[in-house]
Automatic annotation (TrEMBL):
The keyword Metal-binding applies. One of its GO terms (cellular component) is membrane. Gene3D superfamilies: q2cbj1_9rhob like domain. It holds the Pfam family 2OG-FeII_Oxy_3. InterPro entries: OGFOD3 (IPR039210), Oxoglu/Fe-dep_dioxygenase_dom (IPR005123), Pro_4_hyd_alph (IPR006620), Pro_4_hyd_alph_FE2OG_OXY (IPR044862). Keywords: Dioxygenase, Iron, Metal-binding, Oxidoreductase. GO terms for molecular function: dioxygenase activity; iron ion binding; L-ascorbic acid binding; oxidoreductase activity, acting on paired donors, with incorporation or reduction of molecular oxygen. It comes from Struthidea cinerea. This is OGFD3 protein. It comes from the Eukaryota. Residues 140-242 form the Fe2OG dioxygenase domain. PROSITE patterns: FE2OG_OXY.
Length: 251
């Protein structure tokens, strides 16, 4: 792995940390949207946008939803937008599968909090990258993840491979992660790693911490395997292309 630097320790309380890095050429092979498509690239971490208490409330939404299913392997996802929920070795559509019972699991307040948190993260990304928040659109997949040390059963469970979001998803221009649990307290391993040519830069999750970055090859990354405990996070992604925009989930 070579040299590893820690960008954000769990014990840090970061108002704003931002590191600018040169943009890759990934954006050139897609249509450019003036005032949104990255011209300034980089990565940031902030503990000042979402409170720990809000993160705990959001984690409870994830826990309730994931209690209905869960992967046989170590990585489960819940996507409130599409309804995708890990179940055994497959996925089911939460809304079709559970129908009206959904009202017993989630409340309007849950979805309002989700929306509010998403908007605040969107505004912060826009502010840091000097773009207009209204030029950015939520895009899919945007999902909760729950990871533990259970061995992978399918390729969906293998979350630890290095990847580039723009290459994997195409529509992504800005990616964010809101952490919902604490590194070294709730789980071991599971740090987020930016893989640079000269060194690895890690972010240690803590509840309420937001890590965000431009989605191109300038931010090749992976997640370490979780060694013990349970790691919760939500990935919230944005595109500059209105055709790839999605709405907030509604109950």
């Amino acid at each position: 792995d070579g040299v590893t630097e820690v960008l954000a320790h769990r014990s840090d309380n970061l108002r704003d940390k931002f590191i600018e890095i040169p943009c890759s050429e990934d954006y050139d092979s897609h249509k450019r949207f003036e005032g949104c498509t990255p011209r300034k690239c980089g990565r940031g971490v902030t503990d000042a946008v979402i409170t720990r208490e809000e993160a705990e409330r959001i984690r409870r939404i994830a826990e309730r939803g994931l209690s209905l299913g869960g992967s046989d392997g170590g990585a489960s996802i819940l996507d409130l937008h599409s309804g995708a929920l890990s179940l055994g070795k497959h996925f089911v559509n939460l809304y079709r599968y559970f129908g009206d019972k959904i009202q017993d699991i989630f409340t309007e307040e849950d979805f309002a909090l989700y929306r509010d948190v998403r908007q605040r993260i969107q505004h912060r990304i826009a502010q840091v990258f000097g773009i207009s928040s209204s030029a950015m659109y939520l895009t899919k997949p945007t999902f909760f993840s729950r990871m533990n040390s259970t061995a992978a059963k399918t390729t969906h469970d293998e979350y630890w491979h290095p990847h580039v979001d723009k290459v994997t998803y195409g529509s992504f221009d800005y990616t964010s992660l809101l952490y919902l649990s604490d590194y070294s307290k709730d789980f071991g391993g599971g740090r987020f790693v930016f893989m640079d040519a000269d060194s690895n830069k890690t972010v240690e999750p803590r509840a309420g911490r937001v890590s965000f970055f431009t989605s191109g090859s300038e931010n090749l990354h992976r997640v370490e395997k979780v060694q013990w405990g349970t790691r919760f996070a939500i990935t919230i992604s944005f595109t500059c292309d209105p055709e790839h925009g999605i709405g907030d989930p509604v109950l």
